[in-house]
Design goal:
Rossmann fold, 18 strands, elongated, 2 domains, six-stranded antiparallel sheet, 8 helices, single chain, 410 residues, seven-stranded mixed sheet, alpha+beta
Length: 410
């Protein structure tokens, strides 16, 4: 390990768990005293061991935040190869990653003010150092049980921090940014073969438990094929392009919900919008990132659930092509609440949704009355019109749809 100083981390029973590596990424007077008299950011060995056992299978319930040393959990994902959780600890942010079966990475990042309030139990000299200017970051890596032979390589002089953890034939590569609001990436390998292609970690709470994992796999697997799924038209949505080019939507802060491989988000960025693309399928965002680099535009890509998105400032404009008509049958209230919360008062929401061609049409097709019922409390309708979705071959014989422009009530 390079560019680090070893320090003592208290609150862990040495018989229950072995400290594999500890990196202190902030240098300064008194830094080696970290852990003396401090209880706010410690973890208990028995809690980590219990979490390891719990994460062996998928659960419908989130882990208890305090067992992770967090005030609450704001980002979470279960995966066959890892579990990720993040949340605030006062003004600090903590990320916890379990690399299965038994390596824990704990990344603590100071927020504004250097986390001064959280270190009230520290001695006077340490409080002075922690309240000073500069980046405060502590990264700990622990191994439990069968992971006792795991090896780590850390490039602590890189931004983001790069960690490589090897357990037998499995290798994990983690990139953890120094910015608390950035999620980082993960990739796994078996020998030289990629098991999990490099992808973003989540920024919000993802569907979890066996049902949630099946849902995530359903959406992600279609982007791992050679041919893109049928709903990926490979062209900018006509209704979005028309609204922008006719000036009905002005450049501002925009969110593309269920952005897929980023075609529409990239278009908005090219037109001067400050764009965030949110998508539940990590593979889709890996493709989107590459497309944005090629186009020479900046988009913030976020792995998240449209019905339970991460905490973000409200947007001037939200666009949804084909997300609502699926999510409403799974979590209608969550989706409507999220869109209402994330649209600024006076902001616009352009929705393109499957249209029920007759009263017998079932999900995912949606009737006009259902759209009005879902959104009328928070939005005024500027238009609700019939249309057809764009497809790779055009709009002839493509699926019937609605184009709906709404404005958030003030």
């Amino acid at each position: 390990m390079t560019g680090t100083r070893s320090v003592r981390f208290t609150g862990l029973h040495p018989l229950a768990l072995t400290l594999l590596a500890l990196a202190l990424l902030s240098a300064g007077p008194g830094a080696a005293a970290f852990g003396q008299g401090i209880t706010d950011l410690t973890l208990k060995a028995e809690d980590l061991a219990a979490l390891q056992a719990r994460f062996a299978d998928f659960s419908d319930d989130l882990p208890e935040a305090k067992k992770l040393g967090m005030d609450r959990i704001t980002a979470y994902e279960e995966n066959a190869q890892f579990v990720y959780a993040a949340g605030p600890v006062g003004s600090w942010t903590r990320r916890v990653v379990l690399l299965k079966p038994g390596v824990f990475v704990v990344d603590d990042l100071a927020g504004p003010g250097g986390g001064k309030a959280e270190w009230k139990n520290a001695d006077k000299a340490l409080r002075a150092e922690l309240a000073g200017a500069g980046e405060k970051r502590y990264v700990h890596v622990f191994r439990l049980g069968d992971a006792k032979d795991a090896k780590i390589d850390a490039a602590t002089d890189k931004k983001p921090l790069l960690l490589t953890v090897t357990q037998g034939q499995t290798k994990f590569e983690l990139a953890l940014p120094a910015e608390p609001d950035e999620a980082g990436t993960i990739a796994t390998f078996s020998g030289d073969k990629a098991q999990l292609a490099r992808r973003l970690l989540p920024s919000g709470i993802m569907p979890h438990g066996k049902t949630g994992i099946a849902l995530l796999e359903r959406w992600d697997k279609d982007y791992r094929r050679t041919n893109m799924p049928g709903w990926d038209a490979g062209r900018v949505a006509s209704q979005l392009k028309k609204a922008v080019e006719e000036g009905k939507v002005k450049p501002g802060k925009a969110l593309d919900l269920g952005c897929g491989t980023g075609t529409n988000a990239i278009y908005l960025a090219e037109k001067g919008f400050e764009v965030t693309g949110l998508e539940v399928a990590p593979t889709a965002l890996t493709i989107a990132e590459a497309k944005a680099r090629k186009a020479g535009v900046k988009v913030r890509w976020i792995v998240g659930d449209a019905a339970n998105p991460p905490e973000m400032e409200p947007f001037d404009f939200i666009f949804d092509r084909g997300c609502y008509h699926h999510v409403r049958w799974v979590n209608r209230d969550g989706f409507v609440s999220a869109v209402s919360r994330l649209t600024k008062p006076g902001g616009q929401f352009l929705l393109l949704s499957f249209r029920a061609a007759n009263e017998r049409a079932g999900k995912p097709f949606v009737k006009e009355a259902q759209i009005r019922e879902d959104f009328s409390a928070a939005f005024d309708f500027e238009w609700l019109k019939e249309m057809r979705f764009d497809s790779r071959s055009g709009i002839e014989n493509s699926a019937p749809a609605w184009t709906v422009m709404m404005r958030r009530k003030k």
